Amino acid sequence: MFQANHVPGGNPSHRFERLREKAEEDFYKRVGEKVNASYVDIPKLKGIIVGGPGHSKTWFLEVGGLDHRIRTKVIGTIDTSYTDESGIKEILDKSGEILQEVGLIKERNLMNKFVEKVAKGELATYGYREVVEALNLGKVDSVLLSEGLTWQVYKYKCTVCGTIDYKVVRDTDRKEGMDSGTCSACLKESELIEELDIYDYFVEVAANTSTKVELISIESPEGKQFFETFGGLGAFLRYK
Fold it and tell me: What is the DSSP string of 120-160?
């Protein structure tokens, strides 16, 4: 009667598979340590996209030991065909849809918050005159500006006292009479030094009071409502 001898350690192929999985897990943990060390202290980090072939990205998120402050910043995963620099290019090429969706979610939340504050008479305002007045007084925390606005802004500098003035023109075809202006300080003639679009104008003016400018698209229902109902220009206020 023939009897096979017992082979210690079980099936060699199973043992090899366990060793391979352990090596893979150790590798992901080392990568996770590098990610934590590199990104956990970046205060303005908005989001992280993880890419890789097959199950590698989900396995990394499960066992990589990412700090909870990093995990909450993961906004999506992307399948790649390559593991070298071509894979990185794939991630960059495919990340647009994820980033667009994240942007629309942020915009939706921002618009809902704005409408709620306006309805309750809280710290929000809208309309060109109201926003600019609040901005000049340092009341504005952030300006909300629709990309649907195509207004042109003319920037003047007084030839006598150097005062800077702006003239906002909602009719973008209007060009006549824009070459010079009148100084708001000394009433002398001002010369045109620059033409700006409305977004660049608000960024320039808002910088004086450390105010943010948020550009709102017209692609989402909320962004479209902001443009049509509120004129495409609003602001969150620091105080009234």
Answer: HT-SEEESHHHHHHHHHTT-EEEEEEETT---EEEEEEETT
- For residue 19, the tally of other CB atoms under 10 A from its CB is 10
One-letter-per-residue 3-state SS of 162-193: CCEEEEEECCCCCCCCCCEEECCCCCCEEEEE
Three-class secondary structure of residue 233 per DSSP: strand
Whether the Cβ atoms of residue 203 and residue 140 lie closer than 8 Å to each other:
no
The pair phi, psi for residue 114, each rounded to 5°, is: -65, -50
Instruction: Note the pLDDT tens digit of each residue in 51-93.
Output: 989 888 888 999 999 998 888 889 889 999 888 888 888 888 8
Domain, as residue range, for 195: 101-237
- Shortest CA distance to 143 belongs to which of 170, 155, 125? 125
Distance of alpha carbon 219 from alpha carbon 226, whole angstroms: 11
Give the domain CATH number at 201. 3.30.1330.30
**Same domain? 134 vs 61:** no
